[in-house]
Inverse folding.
Protein backbone atom coordinates (compact mmCIF):
# COMPACT_ATOMS: atom_id res chain seq x y z
CA UNK A 1 0.00 0.00 0.00
CA UNK A 2 1.09 3.59 -0.65
CA UNK A 3 -0.95 5.04 2.24
CA UNK A 4 -1.96 4.02 5.74
CA UNK A 5 -5.73 4.33 6.06
CA UNK A 6 -8.75 3.46 8.15
CA UNK A 7 -12.37 2.98 7.08
CA UNK A 8 -14.77 4.00 9.85
CA UNK A 9 -18.50 3.29 10.12
CA UNK A 10 -18.70 0.24 7.83
CA UNK A 11 -20.92 -0.72 6.14
CA UNK A 12 -23.70 1.86 6.46
CA UNK A 13 -21.98 5.26 6.58
CA UNK A 14 -18.35 4.57 5.77
CA UNK A 15 -15.83 7.34 6.30
CA UNK A 16 -12.23 7.24 5.05
CA UNK A 17 -9.22 8.46 7.03
CA UNK A 18 -5.91 8.54 5.15
CA UNK A 19 -2.42 9.45 6.36
CA UNK A 20 -0.55 11.32 3.63
CA UNK A 21 3.26 11.04 3.94
CA UNK A 22 5.36 14.19 3.81
CA UNK A 23 5.29 15.83 0.34
CA UNK A 24 3.09 13.07 -1.09
CA UNK A 25 -0.22 13.62 -2.89
CA UNK A 26 -3.62 11.92 -2.67
CA UNK A 27 -6.30 12.35 -5.35
CA UNK A 28 -9.86 12.71 -4.02
CA UNK A 29 -13.26 13.15 -5.67
CA UNK A 30 -14.52 16.73 -5.64
CA UNK A 31 -16.43 17.89 -2.52
CA UNK A 32 -15.61 14.74 -0.50
CA UNK A 33 -13.02 16.21 1.90
CA UNK A 34 -14.45 16.46 5.43
CA UNK A 35 -11.40 17.43 7.53
CA UNK A 36 -7.67 17.80 6.96
CA UNK A 37 -4.52 18.93 8.78
CA UNK A 38 -3.39 22.49 8.15
CA UNK A 39 -0.16 21.55 6.29
CA UNK A 40 -2.20 19.83 3.56
CA UNK A 41 -2.63 21.92 0.41
CA UNK A 42 -5.21 21.36 -2.33
CA UNK A 43 -5.44 21.98 -6.05
CA UNK A 44 -8.22 20.96 -8.48
CA UNK A 45 -7.84 19.16 -11.80
CA UNK A 46 -10.32 17.88 -14.36
CA UNK A 47 -10.02 14.52 -16.06
CA UNK A 48 -11.82 13.61 -19.25
CA UNK A 49 -11.37 16.74 -21.37
CA UNK A 50 -13.41 19.90 -21.86
CA UNK A 51 -15.28 18.28 -24.76
CA UNK A 52 -17.36 16.31 -22.25
CA UNK A 53 -18.54 19.25 -20.14
CA UNK A 54 -22.08 19.11 -21.54
CA UNK A 55 -22.34 15.38 -20.88
CA UNK A 56 -21.72 15.85 -17.16
CA UNK A 57 -19.16 13.03 -17.26
CA UNK A 58 -16.00 14.99 -16.50
CA UNK A 59 -14.16 13.80 -13.41
CA UNK A 60 -13.20 16.70 -11.18
CA UNK A 61 -10.47 15.60 -8.80
CA UNK A 62 -8.84 17.48 -5.94
CA UNK A 63 -5.18 16.75 -5.25
CA UNK A 64 -4.16 17.00 -1.59
CA UNK A 65 -0.43 17.32 -0.80
CA UNK A 66 0.96 17.21 2.74
CA UNK A 67 3.72 19.82 2.67
CA UNK A 68 6.77 19.45 4.93
CA UNK A 69 5.39 16.78 7.27
CA UNK A 70 2.85 13.92 7.26
CA UNK A 71 -0.82 14.86 7.51
CA UNK A 72 -4.23 13.25 7.87
CA UNK A 73 -7.27 13.80 5.66
CA UNK A 74 -10.77 12.49 6.27
CA UNK A 75 -13.10 11.81 3.34
CA UNK A 76 -16.90 11.53 3.38
CA UNK A 77 -18.48 10.28 0.12
CA UNK A 78 -21.98 11.43 -0.82
CA UNK A 79 -23.97 8.14 -0.80
CA UNK A 80 -24.81 6.41 2.49
CA UNK A 81 -22.95 3.15 2.13
CA UNK A 82 -19.67 1.28 2.20
CA UNK A 83 -16.12 2.03 1.02
CA UNK A 84 -13.79 -0.60 -0.45
CA UNK A 85 -10.08 -0.52 -1.22
CA UNK A 86 -7.92 -2.24 -3.82
CA UNK A 87 -4.23 -1.87 -4.56
CA UNK A 88 -3.60 -1.92 -8.29
CA UNK A 89 -0.36 -3.34 -9.64
CA UNK A 90 1.56 -1.81 -12.54
CA UNK A 91 -0.51 -2.05 -15.72
CA UNK A 92 -3.61 -3.42 -13.96
CA UNK A 93 -6.94 -2.05 -15.21
CA UNK A 94 -10.00 -1.60 -13.00
CA UNK A 95 -13.44 -0.19 -13.89
CA UNK A 96 -15.63 1.78 -11.47
CA UNK A 97 -19.07 3.22 -12.14
CA UNK A 98 -18.90 6.98 -12.58
CA UNK A 99 -20.44 7.89 -9.19
CA UNK A 100 -18.34 5.48 -7.10
CA UNK A 101 -14.78 6.86 -7.33
CA UNK A 102 -13.58 8.16 -3.94
CA UNK A 103 -9.79 8.53 -3.91
CA UNK A 104 -6.52 7.14 -5.24
CA UNK A 105 -2.76 7.44 -5.26
CA UNK A 106 -1.31 10.12 -7.51
CA UNK A 107 0.23 7.29 -9.60
CA UNK A 108 -3.20 5.82 -10.47
CA UNK A 109 -4.41 7.15 -13.81
CA UNK A 110 -8.11 8.07 -13.87
CA UNK A 111 -10.03 8.54 -17.13
CA UNK A 112 -13.60 8.41 -18.43
CA UNK A 113 -14.29 5.48 -20.73
CA UNK A 114 -17.21 5.54 -23.20
CA UNK A 115 -19.38 2.42 -22.85
CA UNK A 116 -21.20 2.83 -26.14
CA UNK A 117 -24.70 4.26 -26.42
CA UNK A 118 -26.63 1.00 -25.95
CA UNK A 119 -24.53 -0.26 -23.06
CA UNK A 120 -24.44 3.10 -21.34
CA UNK A 121 -28.15 3.82 -21.68
CA UNK A 122 -29.22 0.48 -20.24
CA UNK A 123 -26.39 -0.35 -17.83
CA UNK A 124 -27.51 1.79 -14.90
CA UNK A 125 -23.95 3.14 -14.58
CA UNK A 126 -24.34 5.94 -17.14
CA UNK A 127 -22.72 6.38 -20.52
CA UNK A 128 -19.23 6.41 -19.00
CA UNK A 129 -17.25 4.22 -16.66
CA UNK A 130 -14.11 5.33 -14.86
CA UNK A 131 -11.06 3.41 -16.05
CA UNK A 132 -8.36 3.20 -13.39
CA UNK A 133 -4.86 1.93 -14.15
CA UNK A 134 -2.14 1.17 -11.59
CA UNK A 135 0.07 1.17 -9.72
CA UNK A 136 -1.34 2.45 -6.45
CA UNK A 137 -4.20 2.56 -3.97
CA UNK A 138 -7.80 3.02 -5.06
CA UNK A 139 -10.91 3.56 -2.93
CA UNK A 140 -14.50 3.41 -4.19
CA UNK A 141 -17.91 3.55 -2.53
CA UNK A 142 -21.42 2.14 -2.89
CA UNK A 143 -25.05 2.79 -1.96
CA UNK A 144 -25.46 0.27 0.85
CA UNK A 145 -23.03 -2.49 1.79
CA UNK A 146 -20.51 -3.78 -0.74
CA UNK A 147 -19.05 -7.22 -1.46
CA UNK A 148 -17.34 -8.90 -4.41
CA UNK A 149 -18.19 -11.93 -6.51
CA UNK A 150 -15.50 -14.16 -8.03
CA UNK A 151 -16.45 -14.82 -11.66
CA UNK A 152 -15.14 -17.87 -13.48
CA UNK A 153 -17.12 -18.34 -16.63
CA UNK A 154 -20.36 -16.38 -16.47
CA UNK A 155 -22.57 -14.62 -13.93
CA UNK A 156 -25.55 -12.23 -14.02
CA UNK A 157 -25.79 -9.02 -11.96
CA UNK A 158 -28.65 -6.55 -11.86
CA UNK A 159 -27.56 -3.29 -13.46
CA UNK A 160 -28.39 -1.16 -10.43
CA UNK A 161 -26.17 -3.22 -8.12
CA UNK A 162 -22.88 -3.02 -10.05
CA UNK A 163 -20.12 -0.92 -8.45
CA UNK A 164 -16.87 -2.05 -10.07
CA UNK A 165 -15.22 -4.91 -11.95
CA UNK A 166 -11.83 -6.09 -13.14
CA UNK A 167 -10.59 -5.87 -16.72
CA UNK A 168 -10.62 -9.65 -17.27
CA UNK A 169 -14.39 -9.51 -17.73
CA UNK A 170 -16.56 -8.63 -20.69
CA UNK A 171 -20.28 -7.94 -20.37
CA UNK A 172 -23.50 -7.54 -22.31
CA UNK A 173 -26.82 -5.97 -21.35
CA UNK A 174 -29.66 -8.52 -21.52
CA UNK A 175 -33.21 -9.14 -20.25
CA UNK A 176 -33.90 -11.56 -17.38
CA UNK A 177 -36.98 -12.97 -19.12
CA UNK A 178 -39.34 -11.84 -21.86
CA UNK A 179 -40.73 -8.36 -22.44
CA UNK A 180 -43.50 -8.93 -19.90
CA UNK A 181 -40.86 -9.60 -17.26
CA UNK A 182 -38.87 -6.58 -18.43
CA UNK A 183 -41.69 -4.13 -17.66
CA UNK A 184 -43.63 -5.87 -14.86
CA UNK A 185 -41.24 -8.02 -12.82
CA UNK A 186 -39.24 -5.18 -11.27
CA UNK A 187 -36.03 -6.87 -12.41
CA UNK A 188 -35.58 -5.14 -15.78
CA UNK A 189 -32.17 -5.43 -17.46
CA UNK A 190 -29.06 -7.20 -16.21
CA UNK A 191 -25.36 -7.36 -17.01
CA UNK A 192 -24.15 -10.79 -18.07
CA UNK A 193 -20.44 -10.94 -17.22
CA UNK A 194 -18.13 -13.44 -18.93
CA UNK A 195 -14.51 -14.32 -18.31
CA UNK A 196 -12.45 -14.52 -15.15
CA UNK A 197 -12.28 -11.74 -12.57
CA UNK A 198 -14.26 -10.00 -9.85
CA UNK A 199 -17.39 -7.87 -9.71
CA UNK A 200 -18.09 -5.58 -6.75
CA UNK A 201 -21.80 -5.40 -5.92
CA UNK A 202 -23.79 -3.08 -3.65
CA UNK A 203 -26.56 -4.68 -1.61
CA UNK A 204 -28.96 -1.76 -2.08
CA UNK A 205 -30.29 -0.22 -5.28
CA UNK A 206 -30.94 3.51 -5.53
CA UNK A 207 -33.95 3.21 -7.85
CA UNK A 208 -35.59 0.66 -5.54
CA UNK A 209 -34.98 2.91 -2.54
CA UNK A 210 -36.51 5.87 -4.39
CA UNK A 211 -39.59 3.78 -5.23
CA UNK A 212 -39.87 2.70 -1.57
CA UNK A 213 -39.91 6.28 -0.22
CA UNK A 214 -42.14 7.63 -3.00
CA UNK A 215 -45.46 7.03 -1.15
CA UNK A 216 -44.15 9.02 1.83
CA UNK A 217 -43.25 12.17 -0.11
CA UNK A 218 -44.86 15.47 0.82
CA UNK A 219 -47.19 16.90 -1.84
CA UNK A 220 -48.05 20.58 -2.18
CA UNK A 221 -51.66 21.14 -3.25
CA UNK A 222 -52.91 23.94 -5.50
CA UNK A 223 -54.18 25.80 -2.41
CA UNK A 224 -50.57 25.68 -1.06
CA UNK A 225 -51.46 23.22 1.69
CA UNK A 226 -49.14 20.27 2.19
CA UNK A 227 -50.18 16.65 2.57
CA UNK A 228 -48.08 13.59 3.39
Amino acid sequence: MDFKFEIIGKPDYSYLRVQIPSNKTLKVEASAMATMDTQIQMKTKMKGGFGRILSGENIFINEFTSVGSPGTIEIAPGPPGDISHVHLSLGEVFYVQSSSYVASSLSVNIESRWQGLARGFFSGAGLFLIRCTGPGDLWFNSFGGIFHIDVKGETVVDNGHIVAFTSGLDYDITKVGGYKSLFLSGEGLVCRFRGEGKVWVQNRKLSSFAAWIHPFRRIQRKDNSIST
Observations:
- Residues 156 and 192 are 5 Å apart (CA to CA).
- The helical segments are 117-123, 179-184, 206-213.
- Residues 206-213 form the longest helix (8 residues).
- DSSP finds three helices and 19 strands in the chain.
